[in-house]
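User: Reviewer 2 asked us to show a designed sequence for the structure in our supplementary figure. I'm pasting the structure tokens here. Could you produce the per-position amino acids so we can include them in the response letter?
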């Protein structure tokens, strides 16, 4: 996805609040769900950090990440890339709210959910449904209805699996926030911005309840990217 179009405006609200002198620097793309995952963790840790916006679809950033991806974290001149490694590092390195369960089984559930999100949710929910139904039209590009349909079909299976987790009451309760919540929140946020995604999500009561809680938390509102029409 490209961020060049005149129909895109805004920034992560949270980044504006926390920029300044810091030992932490986050290199990312303002509309990237994975950049937002890390920003949510930083917000929950009340960390002060600088943010540098890079669109990896337009700029070569292999000097930061060997595969040209975002986000990348710099902490005291130590660069860390790959979102899962970064969020776990931040949870260990920065004091404050613990974002990983201390019980082995619940920790395994968290890791399992994050793996499901990365491998099975991101492509259909974000790259297919959101990108084609919401993001591309904002740029003045045509949506591919076949890609959207395929994305919705694949998203339904993912939501079924996540609904089962959300119904167990030992994770996704909207109160005891873990890294699993941090990873899923940006995906669902983008997915439900499409009419089809919002309707499909409503078929899953446990996930819908989780979303109704977390979407109103400061970790969601302070890191939400703003899309708007420029004049």
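Assistant: Here is a per-position design you can include in the supplement:
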């Amino acid at each position: 996805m490209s961020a060049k179009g005149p129909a895109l405006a805004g920034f992560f609200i949270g980044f504006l609040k926390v920029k300044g002198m810091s030992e932490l620097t986050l290199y990312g793309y303002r509309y990237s769900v994975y950049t937002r995952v890390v920003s949510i963790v930083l917000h929950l840790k009340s960390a002060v950090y600088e943010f540098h916006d890079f669109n990896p679809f337009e700029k070569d950033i292999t000097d930061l990440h060997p595969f040209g991806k975002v986000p990348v974290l710099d902490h005291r001149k130590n660069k860390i890339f790959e979102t899962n490694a970064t969020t776990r590092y931040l949870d260990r390195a920065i004091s404050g709210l613990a974002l990983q369960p201390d019980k082995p089984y619940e920790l395994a559930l968290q890791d399992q959910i994050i793996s499901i999100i990365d491998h099975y949710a991101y492509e259909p929910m974000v790259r297919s449904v959101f990108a084609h139904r919401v993001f591309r039209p904002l740029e003045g590009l045509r949506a591919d209805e076949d890609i959207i349909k395929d994305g919705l079909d694949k998203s339904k299976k993912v939501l079924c699996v996540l609904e089962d987790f959300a119904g167990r009451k030992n994770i996704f309760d909207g109160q005891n926030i873990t890294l699993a919540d941090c990873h899923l929140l940006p995906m669902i946020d983008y997915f439900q911005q499409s009419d089809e995604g919002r309707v499909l999500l409503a078929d899953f009561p446990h996930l819908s309840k989780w979303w109704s809680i977390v979407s109103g938390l400061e970790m969601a509102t302070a890191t939400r990217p703003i899309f708007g029409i420029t004049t």
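For the response letter, you might also mention the following. The first strand starts at residue 24 and ends at 28. The chain has nine helices and four strands.
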